[in-house]
Amino acid sequence: MILPDYFAFYGIPQSFHPDTEVVRKQYYAHSRNFHPDRVQQSDEKALAESLSMSAMNNEAYKILNDPDRLMGYILRLHGVVEEEEAYKLPPAFLMEMMELNEAIGNADMDPSLKSAAVQEYENAMNSWKHAVAPRMLAFDQGDRSPELLAALKDFYYRKKYLLRIRERILA
């Protein structure tokens, strides 16, 4: 499946940190231009096109405003991440996550340990943010090398894992 390029659609450069004000303005401009009520009296083909463009505009806005979805979208756009991919995380990372999962499991049995487990999770997430930031910046500055994209892919799957752990903590 070929992904639509939401960056081109909004006339902005590919970035992990798109200008939110520009995204918002483009969203509202496209919302006015593609709103189905504007083509109400037109033929079925024009109405279908308007509905399609309106749906694309809504999806573009959602993705460009959600850092987690945006990362996956950019990597799919570059053909680095595939839907339902079975990515293998590094063993060292999985060992760290096993310890974090154990802390959460202990907190489930003893609520007095929950704040320590939450702190451990936050430390892991902060470590992820600190490590990925320079790579995202390199991408934003134009680096599209296979090495950088591969590193970003690894960070993407690490964050997905961390987000699943967050769901356990919040449950």
Topology:
Elements: H1 6-10, H2 20-34, H3 44-64, H4 67-77, H5 91-109, H6 114-140, H7 146-170
Helix pairs in contact: 2-3, 4-7, 5-6, 5-7, 6-7
Task: Spell the H/E element sequence.
Answer: HHHHHHH
Helix count, per DSSP? 7
Number of strands: 0
Estimate what percentage of residues fall within beta strands.
under 5%
Principal-axes shape call: elongated
Please tell me the overall pLDDT: 93
Helix-strand category: mainly alpha
Q: What helical percentage do the residues reach?
A: over 70%
Q: What about the largest sheet? A: none
* N/C terminus separation: 35 Å
Description:
The structure is a single chain. 72% of the residues lie in helices and 0% in strands. By secondary structure, it is an all-alpha fold. It has helices at residues 6-10, 20-34, 44-64, 67-77, 91-109, 114-140, 146-170. Helix 4 (67-77) packs antiparallel against helix 7 (146-170). The relative contact order is 0.11. The protein folds into 2 domains: 6-65, DnaJ domain (Helix Hairpins), CATH 1.10.287; 91-170.
Features:
171 residues, mainly alpha, Helix Hairpins, 2 domains, 7 helices
Short description:
By secondary structure, this protein is an all-alpha fold. It has helices at 6-10, 20-34, 44-64, 67-77, 91-109, 114-140, 146-170. The chain is built from 7 helices and no strands.
